[in-house]
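Weekly sync, protein design subgroup
Attendees: M.S., D.O., the rotation student, P.L. (late)

Item 1: inverse folding check
M.S. brought a backbone from last month's batch and wanted to see whether the design step gives back something sensible before we order anything. D.O. pointed out we never logged the input encoding, so this time it goes straight into the notes. Structure tokens as presented (221 positions):
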């Protein structure tokens, strides 16, 4: 045996011992990093879940202020779009045809028919406007304060004033008609609610559009 064999053996054992400690230390560090990454992902998931729950429960609120001038604008906008341009074109054609026939001195059933169509058409359009305008004015005059509170969340919206409170699901809105000064929430061909655009923040406007579309309603600008 060589004289320096035992010191060399002790040196080798120290090297093996150090390498073993280094291996376990590296393994523990890797486990620690994996554990930290898992905890970080868990915290991120919890934050996103909390943020989603907050957004789901977050509501938008606005005070809607009405006036007779605003109601006239809303009813006229509804009347013009619901009657349609084609209706007025038909009335114009009937009026021109009637004028030509009368100028030619014709007195037949065609003249009578055109005259009846023209009168009935004008009467229909006038009645539609008057009925909706009177209904709007009646509700307006019933209010002590010409204002209402509008609250909207992800699933429903509420309109409340001193004459009552109504809560509806967004699915009840069939169409949203957008005009420069008012928005109209249409529930049927003859029922709608008026939203003064100046009273709605850009965030509330975007929320209304998003909810109407998400519920299957049509947005018509």
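Designed sequence read out in the meeting:
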């Amino acid at each position: 045996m060589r004289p320096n064999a035992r010191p060399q053996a002790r040196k080798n054992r120290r090297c093996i011992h150090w390498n073993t400690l280094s291996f376990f230390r590296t393994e523990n560090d890797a486990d620690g990093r994996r554990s930290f990454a898992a905890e970080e992902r868990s915290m991120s998931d919890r934050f996103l879940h909390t943020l989603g729950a907050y957004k789901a429960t977050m509501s938008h609120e606005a005070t809607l202020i009405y006036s007779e001038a605003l109601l006239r604008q809303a009813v006229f906008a509804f009347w013009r779009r619901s009657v349609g341009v084609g209706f007025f074109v038909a009335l114009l054609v009937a009026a021109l045809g009637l004028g030509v026939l009368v100028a030619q001195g014709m007195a037949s059933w065609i003249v009578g028919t055109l005259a009846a169509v023209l009168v009935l058409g004008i009467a229909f359009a006038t009645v539609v406007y008057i009925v909706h305008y009177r209904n709007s004015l009646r509700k307006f005059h019933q209010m002590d304060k010409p204002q209402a509170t509008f609250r909207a969340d992800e699933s429903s919206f509420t309109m409340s004033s001193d004459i009552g409170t109504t809560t509806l699901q967004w699915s009840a809105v069939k169409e949203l008609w957008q005009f420069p000064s008012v928005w109209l929430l249409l529930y049927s061909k003859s029922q709608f609610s008026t939203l003064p655009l100046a009273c709605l923040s850009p965030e509330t406007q975007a929320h209304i559009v998003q909810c109407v579309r998400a519920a299957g309603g049509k947005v018509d600008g």
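Discussion: The chain has five helices and eight strands. Residues 1-5, 20-24, 47-56 have pLDDT under 50 and may be disordered.
Action: P.L. to compare against the previous round before Friday.
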